[in-house]
Each structure stands twice: as C-alpha cells, then as structure tokens.
Amino acid sequence: MTTTKSSLLSPMWRLYIAAWLGYMLVVALVNQADTLVAGQFNPHLLWRSFISLAPSAGMLALLWPLSGWFDRRAVTGARRFAIHVVAALAFATYAHTVLIVTQKPPSHPLSWHIWPFLYNVMSYAVVAGVFHVVRANAAAQRQALAAQQAQTLLVAAELGALRSKLNPHFLFNTLHSIIALTQRNPQAAETALFQFSNMLRYVLDTERAGIDRVTLDAEFDFVRDYLELESLRLGARLQVEWDLDPTLGDCLVPALTLQPLVENSIKHAFNPFTRTGLLRIESRREPDTGLLRVTVRDDGPGAAPATIAASPGLGIRTIGRRLDLDYAGRAALRIDSRPGAGFAACVTLPTTP
To answer: Which of 87, 158, 208, 301 is the 20 to 30 Å CA partner of 256?
Structure first.
C-alpha cells in the first residue's frame, strides 16, 4: 500500500509552522512580563495566553498560502486589493473581539477601540506585504533563472550550428584541393589522402566525443597536418614560420579555431599567385592581461576593412561568432589588414576555461 506525504510535512512547512509557534511563545511571554519581573510566573497563565493567540496567529499564517493562491490564479489589481481589505477587516474585528472579551475597557472606550483595531489592520498589512514581496522576489529569480537557462541553451544550439557549418566547410575545401592535386601529381594526391585521413580522424573524434575544447598543441598538430597537405600542392611557394611559446601548449582552445584562419591565408595569399609567400604562426601570452594570443599572418595582398566585412566567406565569420558565444566577451578575433600590407588574424582568449 502506498502512502502520500502531505505538503504540510515538507521541511518548508515545518519551518513555517515552527516560526509562528515561536512568535506566539514570544508574545505570550511578553504578555506575562509583569509576572516574570515580580517573580510570580504562572505556567497556567502563560499557556492560556499562548492558546488565546492561536486563532489570530493562525489567520495571519494563512496569508502565505493565500498569497500563493493569488499567484496561481493570477489574481491581481483591484480584486486582490478587495480580498485583502475584507480579510484585514475580518482579522482586526476578530482580534479586537478577543481583546474585549479578555480585558476590561478603560475609562475612554472609544480610543480603546480605535487604536487596537487600526494596529491589527496594520499588522495584517505588514505580514501580507512581506509575503507578497517574498513571492514576487522568488518569481523574479525563477524568471531570471529560466531566462538564463534559455540563453544557455540558445548559445549551445548556435555553437553547435556554427560547428556543424564549419566541419563540412573544411571537408569540402580540403577534398577540393586533393582533387585538384590528382590531375597534376597522382602520387602526391595519394600521400595527401593519407594526410587527410589523419585530419579527418581529429575532426570525427572531437565531434563524436562532444569535445569542444582541445589543447593548443593538439590544434597546432592539426594545422601542421593541414599545411603538409597544402604543401604537396603548393610546393616551394608555401613557406611557414612557427614562433610558439612552449609553455602555452596545454592551454585549451575551441577545436578547429586556427585551421580556418590558416586556410584563409592559403586561399587569398598563396592560391592566386606563383610567387613564394610566407605564412607566420605565433603564440604568445600577453604581458598585461595574461591572455593567450595566437596570430596567423601572411605577406599576401591584404584587403581593406570594408572588403573583409563584405566577404561572403564562412571561416573567419564563424570563428569570431564562436568566440563571442563561447567566452561571453572574454575572447576575440581581430583582423589587421590593408591593401598591399598582408593579412593578420589574431585570436585572444583566456588561458583557463
């Protein structure tokens, strides 16, 4: 046989009831302050005072579930105010009736009736106001948390979409290079296919494992494989200089972040020309901020900022957007280029996640 646990037995409700019982005990002790000071403490009188407080304290305690009922039923505005006015008058009337029964009115009955009645109305208003503020703050926090979770899911979805665009982009362009190589040098194309299989394994392993961050050394190894493949096609035209800080190899970077930058230089600074070109790749730790800085620089024709912004290319735009989403403004992609002065893409990102 199964049993259901009442909500009144939940930790929150137990704490809530205990708080009100504590309040009643404190008020009962205050009511018996004179006997305590005089050394004439009477437990029976204390108990009677405690029990006499139960109805009024219970009515105030019901304001918490009442405020919850308002929220669940979306009771707002004039209707909520009207219910509170009626409830406040009922509470004040009951509490004042108890006072008349238990105490004798003094010589000025009118003032004796007015001020306690207003005090009870004020007590009701204070308790109701506190409970509504608490529930409003809790609702605001839930909404903020829901909005944050929705934003996190949106960012994750967009990152996944960007990565799903980048992987086919890389595969298509690399296969296109190999196909072009088969027409001129079949033996080199065969070597390129083996090189491409290593690169494909890197892409598939990170995709299958759901790994978005890899070490900088692993990303550089992937770039080296890509450059070796391209060197089979470009030959002596492709000159590469590496200037790496060996202490940064364990830093984590988004997978497939650097290869599109190198590919961009290959496409614009090497493919259209027969001359020898220089591609320089360097990693540094910025002295002022401690950020990791990776720069891919070529000595190609460069381009004006407006031309770069209007380019339909996917790689650089995707990398910039991934960094914005993944690091929430702590990472950036900067482009430094002008006509006739080469092209430099600089990625800066934190050395810790």
So the answer is: 301
User: How far apart are the two ends of the chain, measured CA to CA in Å?
Assistant: 51
Say which residue the tokens 């990693």 belong to: 283
CA distance 309 to 299: 20
The answer to whether the beta carbons of residues 303 and 339 sit under 8 Å apart is: yes
Residue 108 CA to its chain's centroid (Å)? 63
Query: Considering the domain boundaries, does residue 73 fall inside one?
Result: yes
Location of structure tokens 């599109």 = 260
Q: Are residues 133 and 193 in the same domain?
A: no
Number of domains in the chain: 2
DSSP state of 269: I
pLDDT band at 242, cuts 50/70/90?
A: very high
* Whether residue 128 is found in the same domain as residue 189: no
d(CA 300, CA 269): 4
Comparing CA positions, the residue from 250, 259, 256 lying closest to residue 203 is 256
pLDDT tens for residues 66-121? 888 887 877 888 888 888 888 888 888 877 676 665 655 555 565 556 777 888 88
Q: Is 24 exposed, middle or buried (0-12, 13-18, 19+ CB in 10 A)?
A: buried
Q: Identify whether residues 137 and 195 lie together within a single domain.
A: no
pLDDT in tens, 145-187: 766 765 655 555 555 555 555 556 667 777 877 887 787 788 8
Using an 8 Å Cβ cutoff, are 219 and 257 in contact?
yes
Domain that holds residue 326: 185-349
| The pLDDT value given to residue 269 | 92
Q: 174 lies in a domain?
A: no
In whole angstroms, give the CA distance from residue 93 to residue 308: 77
CA-wise closest residue to 227 among 276, 282, 281, 272: 281
DSSP for 190-223, written as a single string: HHHHHHHHHHHHHHHHHHHHT--EEEHHHHHHHH
CA distances from 279 to 20, 22, 115 (A): 75, 76, 88
Query: What's the CATH number where 299 sits?
Result: 3.30.565.10
- For residues 248-266, average pLDDT: 89
